[in-house]
Amino acid sequence: MQPITFRPLYMERVWGGRELERVYHRHLPDRHQPYGESWEIVDREDAQSVVEAGCFVGTTLHELWNRHRAELFGDGYADGAERFPLLIKILDARDDLSIQVHPPASIAASLGGEPKTEMWVIADCVPGAKLYAGLRRGVTREAFERAVAEGTVAECVHAIEPQPGDSIFIPSGRLHAIGAGFLIHEIQQNSDTTYRVFDWNRMGLDGTPRELHVAESMASIDFADFEPAMDVPCGEVLAECAHFKTISRRFAEGGMLANPDAARFSIVTVIQGSLTSTDGRRFETGRSLLLPKAADPLQAAADTTVLQITVPERSGGKS
Q: Does the global pTM surpass 0.85?
């Protein structure tokens, strides 16, 4: 059993740029447009990862998940989960993203959305670049409502200056934004629900202001979430929740990478260096791949760092 790779889906964003092309040598669809996101692994009705090589070439992730679940992914996942439970992205933020929130599971359906818990791993950033996460200490719901009306929301949000290699967990309900100057790997629930509460008073790519979702945001924000810091790893573990577990692993030349549980799959993203499969394929910095259950191990080049993401048993669907 060999790794499965997919064709990335590139998303134009008003805040995006061309770092995917410069850093990862990607061929972007249009040389004039800003691309803010590469959806590396996705199974949504309107966005599908398609296998780019091997015996499953041309097959969608949705088809793999529903027709080959036990064979490729392993046992113990939610049989009723129609879609693969994770969405793996690379984000290129050359300008500030909107200040936003994702709805918690307890209220997402009533708002017409899906819950989304995610995490960010900083691949690169310019000096002084800022992430925004949580509220500044002392900001009340009433003060935040006034800031929304006055256009001063940015003054209410906690700012952090991380370094490459740092990570932060973003649970549903946490107010957040990525500032200008970041290249980020994002691991998230399979959801595309984002409520914007403030967008820096700018225009979208079509020349009109982007839609805001103030009522939905106010219902979703955790107003007791004050000034979170970047996460401190617990050994190799960067984040662990009901939806995913992400570890960071470093290898010397010749090191071998296999699934933590041979009977279950993992997602591997190369942060630095490269990996080689037993069929001779080489996976360079920036690539994400699906390592099926019982897959042959991958061999690392010198100074290789990877993220390895696993999904808890019986996880999947809209949890």
A: yes
Write down the architecture of domain 1-13+39-90+233-319 according to CATH.
Answer: Sandwich (2.60)
Report the SS3 class of residue 8. coil
CA proximity to 299, closest of 249, 253, 247 = 253
End-to-end CA distance of the chain: 30
- Token pair for residue 31? 């040389």
Q: Where in the chain is the domain with CATH 2.60.120.10?
A: 1-13+39-90+233-319, 96-181+191-231
Tens of pLDDT, residues 215-270: 999 999 999 999 999 999 999 999 999 999 999 999 999 999 999 999 999 999 99
Paired with 132 in beta bridges are 159, 177
How far apart, in whole angstroms, are the C-alpha atoms of residue 125 and residue 181?
Answer: 5
Q: How far apart are CA 103 and CA 196, in angstroms?
A: 11
Q: Is 73 helix (H, G, I), strand (E, B) or coil?
A: helix
Domain 96-181+191-231 in CATH: superfamily?
Jelly Rolls (2.60.120.10)
DSSP 109: G
Tokens of residue 204, six digits? 């979208």
- Exactly one of 196, 210, 281, 282 is catalytic; which is it? 196
CA nearest neighbour of 245 among 303, 298, 288, 308: 308
Token pair for residue 154?
A: 């940015």
Residue pLDDT, tens place only, 183-206 = 999 999 999 999 999 998 777 778
- CA 224 and chain centroid, separation: 24
To the query of whether residue 196 is one of the catalytic residues in this protein, the response is: yes
SS3 205: coil
pLDDT (tens digit, 9 = 90+) per residue, 5-27? 999 999 999 899 999 999 999 99
